[in-house]
């Protein structure tokens, strides 16, 4: 006799042990790479140290990430996802209110630059004359700044749909560039920065 629940959707199968191990190993390596970059800067991160901290072999790391640059790219992509989730939440909290949302979004981004040890390590390295991680942040596939621009463009499309697409794109680009400039070179009155950027972007939008 057939069980009446036989037609129910089956539960998702767990990953095979090898796949599960790879996922866990990848997460450990990225976490330790983040920690090492925050402590000493990306320039000083060595695969040998990373392997020791993560408890895996160097060949395993190279097989998973390709090379040291692959680790950096994976690290930036991981941090980008976290940043975008937080930024989207801030914008959603102020949905329908253009200027307050922009102020909150800029303030959130500047705060992340101040308190996030990984972001801080990147900015410190930049101010010190090295840009070892900046290529991953600006020109590699799915970089954080391009992803942020796309997020802002989509949000502007919902918030100010009457504004032309070109102006929304220009406003998104301006928001990112101004915020980044203040991350790298904070103003003498950082508390006023979010409102200043918000006013400038609103003027660009004509809103």
Features:
single chain; elongated; 207 residues; mainly alpha
What is the terminal separation in angstroms?
A: 68 Å
Give the H and E element order: HHHHHHHHHH
Largest sheet: none
What is the count of helical runs? 10
Class per helix and strand makeup: mainly alpha
On the 0 to 100 scale, the average pLDDT is: 83
Radius of gyration: 21 Å
Oligomer: single chain
Q: Helical content, roughly? A: over 70%
Number of strand segments? 0
Shape: elongated
Stretches where pLDDT is under 50 for at least 5 consecutive residues are none
Strand content: under 5%
Structure description:
The model has no long low-confidence stretch (mean pLDDT 83). Helices cover 72% and strands 0% of the residues. It contains ten helices and no strands. The longest helix has 26 residues. It has a domain of 133 residues. It is an all-alpha fold and 207 residues long. Keywords: DNA-binding, Transcription, Transcription regulation. This is TetR family transcriptional regulator. It holds the Pfam family TetR_N.
A few lines on this structure:
The protein has 207 residues and is mainly α. 72% of the residues lie in helices and 0% in strands.
Helices and strands in order:
Layout: H1 17-40, H2 47-54, H3 58-65, H4 68-93, H5 98-115, H6 117-127, H7 134-138, H8 144-159, H9 165-184, H10 193-205
Helix pairs in contact: 1-2, 1-4, 1-6, 4-5, 4-8, 5-6, 5-9, 5-10, 8-9, 9-10
């Amino acid at each position: 006799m057939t069980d009446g629940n036989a037609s129910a959707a089956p539960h998702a199968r767990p990953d095979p042990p090898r796949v599960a191990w790879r996922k866990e190993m990848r997460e450990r390596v990225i976490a330790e790479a983040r920690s090492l970059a925050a402590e000493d800067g990306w320039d000083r991160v060595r695969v040998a140290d990373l392997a020791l901290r993560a408890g895996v072999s160097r060949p395993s790391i190279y097989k998973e990430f390709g090379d040291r640059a692959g680790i950096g790219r994976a690290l930036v992509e991981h941090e980008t996802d976290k940043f975008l989730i937080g930024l989207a939440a801030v914008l959603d909290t102020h949905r329908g209110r253009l200027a307050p949302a922009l102020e909150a979004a800029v303030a959130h981004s500047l705060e992340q630059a101040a308190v996030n040890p990984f972001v801080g390590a990147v900015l410190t390295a930049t101010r010190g004359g090295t840009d070892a991680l900046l290529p991953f942040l600006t020109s590699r596939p799915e970089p954080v700044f391009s992803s942020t621009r796309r997020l802002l463009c989509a949000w502007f499309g919902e918030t100010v749909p009457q504004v032309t697409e070109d102006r929304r794109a220009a406003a998104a680009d301006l928001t990112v560039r101004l915020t980044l400039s203040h991350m790298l070179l904070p103003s003498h009155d950082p508390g006023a920065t979010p409102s200043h950027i918000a006013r400038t972007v609103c003027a660009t939008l004509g809103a």
